[in-house]
Every structure is written in C-alpha cells, then in structure tokens.
Prior knowledge:
The structure is a single chain. The model is unreliable at 1-11 and 13-27 (pLDDT under 50). The chain contains 1 helix and 28 strands. It is rod-shaped, with a radius of gyration of 29 Å. The chain has one helix at residues 69-72, and strands spanning 8-13, 22-23, 31-34, 38-40, 44-46, 48-58, 63-66, 76-86, 89-91, 109-110, 126-129, 153-156, 166-170, 201-204, 207-208, 236-237, 268-273, 277-279, 282-284, 300-301, 317-319, 335-340, 344-346, 349-351, 370-375, 379-386, 402-407, 413-415. The longest helix has 4 residues, at 69-72. It is mainly beta.
Amino acid sequence: xxxxxxxxxxxxxxxxxxxxxxxxxxxxxxxxxxxxxxxxxxxxxxxxxxxxxxxxxxxxxxxxxxxxxxxxxxxxxxxxxxxxxxxxxxxxxxxxxxxxxxxxxxxxxxxxxxxxxxxxxxxxxxxxxxxxxxxxxxxxxxxxxxxxxxxxxxxxxxxxxxxxxxxxxxxxxxxxxxxxxxxxxxxxxxxxxxxxxxxxxxxxxxxxxxxxxxxxxxxxxxxxxxxxxxxxxxxxxxxxxxxxxxxxxxxxxxxxxxxxxxxxxxxxxxxxxxxxxxxxxxxxxxxxxxxxxxxxxxxxxxxxxxxxxxxxxxxxxxxxxxxxxxxxxxxxxxxxxxxxxxxxxxxxxxxxxxxxxxxxxxxxxxxxxxxxxxxxxxxxxxxxxxxxxxxxxxxxxxxxxxxxxxxxxxxxxxxxxx
Length: 418
C-alpha cells in the first residue's frame, strides 16, 4: 500500500497571540540564546530551541540537519529570530519518532529432524513448523500497529511399509501480517496480510502417510494504522510517528527470514520571525519507507528412506514453501510551522510526506521434483513435488504530516511554495 502523501497545508492569518508556536516540546530539547546573528555556512546538525536576537540564515548550497529523535530524544528544531532567511536546506527527514523493530523469521517446530533425514523410517510421526513472528508497533502519538503472527504448518513424515511405502508431506508455516503505517496529518494505511504457507503439490502414483493431514500455516493479519492527531489550523505542531515493523517469514525445510524495521516519522521544524522571513531553499520533514517483510523458508525433501531396493519417490518426506512476512509500515510526515510578523516570501520547497510501506516477503519455493520411472519388480513409476508459499503483502503507507504558514495580513506576502 502506498503512502498517503497528502500534505496538510494551512495558510493562516497571524495575530499577536500567535507569534510563537505552541509546539510539542520534549524534555531532552535544549534552549540556546544567541545575541546577534546565526548564519549557517557549512553542513551541520542542530536541535532544540534557538532564540536569536538578529538574523538566522542558512546559506545556499548548505544543509542544516535536524538531529533525529533516536539520537537525543528531541527531534525538533525551533528558530525564534528577528529575521529569517533560508536559501539552503533544513532537513528534518526521518528525525521524528521511530518505527518498530522487525519480527523474527520462524526457526522452530516439533519433530523437525524428520524434515531432512530418514530417522525412524518405518513409523509415521507428525511434524510441525512455526509461523513467522510479527513486528513491533511503532512509536509516537499516531504509531502504526503491528500485525499478528503466522500460523504453524504440519503434516506426516514418510513411512516404509511392507507393501507400498507412503510419502510424507509437511505443510509450511505462514508469514506474519504487515505493519500499519504511522499517522500525523491524516490517517495512514493499514498493513496487509502475511503469506499463507503451502501444504500442496503434485504427486502421482503414490499415497501420503495417514497419521495426520497436511495443513498449511495461516497468514497473519495486518496491523491497524495510527490515528491522526493535531489540528489543521491551530498554532500547535508536532513531529511524525513511526510505522510498525515488518514481519518474519514462516518456517519449512529452511528457516524464515527476519522482517525489517518500520519507517521513522519526519521531524518538527519551526521558524518564527518577529520581522521578515524568506524561504527560497528547501524545508523537508518527510517520513521514511518501511522495511521489507522476511522471506518464507523454502521447502525441501529427504533422501529416499526405505531399504527395499526400489528407491521410489514414495520413500521421501516433502515440505512445501512457507509464507512470506508482511512489510513494515511507513513513517508519517513531520510538522513544519512558519510564521512572521513582517513581510513573508516563500518561493522554495516545503515537504512533509509520509513513507511508503515496505514490500512483503517472498513465499518460499517448493521442493524440487522427484521422479521414479518404476521397474519390473517395484511396479509403476511415481513422482512428487511441492508448491511455493504465498508472498506477504505490503505494509501500510505513512500519512502526510502538517505544514502551517501564518502570515501577517497587514504586510506584503508572497507565498508560492513548491
């Protein structure tokens, strides 16, 4: 699911009571007084609140990066200055609340030794393989919710019989569900389902063991999106929220792979000028793309286990492909707040888009075919192969953030932002 990339842009009249933004401040953010000018002439990071008596300027070709929330627990940059001139870039991308961790691929089950070897070849036992683990929910007010775990697959191993051996067929584990996207300026997208494991294939001229029925692991359900917060026109602003982590793939003959992390929300950028304000460069507070879901484990088969001299495909235990895990939710866009009591000129680029959801993991491949041509003493030939597991779905896209521009209607204003 693609991100909700709508940016919530409000251009509002600025009155004296709205001179300063009521931002969502965090205790780790410092306040730094500056007497005179602060001119950024080379690439660097800043964070916290800067109260500047003179000019604040970012020179053309220079990038000022907002220190991420994950680094110092702040994730915001607030500039209060007499005059503000942005010719370069203020980059608050991915500086907001973090996405959740990815879920683990499935590695466990019961009687899994029979997936790969011929132990206790004359007896039928049930083998189970686990489904993938869901990712962790994102962080922040509009955090995306994690999906649910994939279900376990099961089936019987082979058994050597006096007359007519029986093959084993193990249904594979399902992938866990995708993470929901992080929200801020709107509600994000929900996560899709994980991939169902396979418990089927193409088998001719032989019978399956009967101590249990091959059963595919169910797909996990997708996580809910976060809920939008804040207002379109109030004088508050906040950072973006994180998406839920991607999920792990189910187990089969091979283990499932881990899912990636959820996308991080955009940071919070505030520019308050008591005089004139110019933005000819770029102000960006975008959310990041969610990580991909873990691939499902590939199926496989044992060797031919019986010692009757026939070596038919009915002497083998087959396992099908496992389901892929759902992708991670994208992080939401962050918050950009601009106000000036003097003349305002905005001709640059302002961005607060959310990140797309991550791709779902691929379903595991099925077992390679077995073919036996038969013989005079062993009878007709037989064959067997298993199917692949289903792919996981995409994670939910993160919503757009909020961009608020407060102008003084008594001054000359040119607002033509990209």
